[in-house]
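In full, the data.
>
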Amino acid sequence: MPRHTRRIRRSVLSVLAVTLTLSAAAPLRTEAAPPRTVSAWLPYWDQENAYRDALAHAAQIRTISPFWYETKSATRVDGHPGAGDRRIIDGLHAKGIQVVPTVMEQMKPGGLAGIMTSPAQRAAHAKALLAVVRSRAYDGLDLDYETIAPTPESKYRAVRAGYAAFVTDLCARLHALRKQCFVTVSPKTRTTGRIWDYRAIGAAADRMRVMAYNMHHAEGPPGALSTPQWYDEILARATAEVPRAKLEMGLPAYGWDWAVDGKARARHVTSNEAEALRRQVKAPYALDPDSRTPHFTYRDGKKRRTVWYQDARGTAAHLPVLRKYGVPHTVLWALGFEQPELWRTLATGQRDRMAHPARQ
């Protein structure tokens, strides 16, 4: 090999060695993806559409809770149509999403209270729920026991204490199986939610989900589902009793369609349906200045109707309250209800939180 060729080869090798050394010492910096902070409920009555929605936004989703099970008694937990679909469980797991199915109930007045105030029935019910979590490759369970809320004053203290004891025991049993324990509750404000022992639930559960919607509901007068002021009150109380990292703030992707001059129950509309109806009736888009939620009025034959709902713009106006209290986690009711723009809003809100973290 000629002498000048050997010199060139040695120079090239020297440069390569230096480059490799520098590369090992200082790896290329890549922007880390934001943590998954969005969870969502998956409605069984629109399962395929909701499942496709979950897969399309898998990069943002931490947990999916299929709305699959209903408690009928202390010892009986039934599945809704499609419950336990292994294709869906496996598909979500393949995308790195936790599957924590929801168990709800619609018992007659006093039914749930009877279970929660009886140690024997609480134990039997915990056993029935553990059988559900063992039946599939679930990552835990989510309890959504809403009929506990309207407990009579005479039974309030006993039911509150019984439910807290039940949650504490069930979560310990789930943790022993290396499963997660989620509890869904209604908001605690000056006038609502006192049946929930937030401190006990927050201490026992991995996540406490606050249903921060239905401020105005189907049986009541028309109005916004939520407001930033209401969120402020909810989170002031919740963060005083539950670690911020355990809270998931429930966000609505739906609305109600009321007859303005009638007494009938309001019609449920998803955010997509509400916006399609607004365009169909040619109502102007209006964001209420107080609630920061969209609404419109239209005529249906001889009746005037009004629709209040939540969309991406309204959600963007509510997210600063979550950032104020340092609560990054949200849970969406429900997959398939939302406008596509909402995912960008949630992603932007997460980036803003990372750039300007709230004081803990």
Observations:
- The chain is about 40% helix and 20% strand.
- Residues 189 and 234 are 6 Å apart (CA to CA).
- Residues 1-31, 353-360 have pLDDT under 50 and may be disordered.
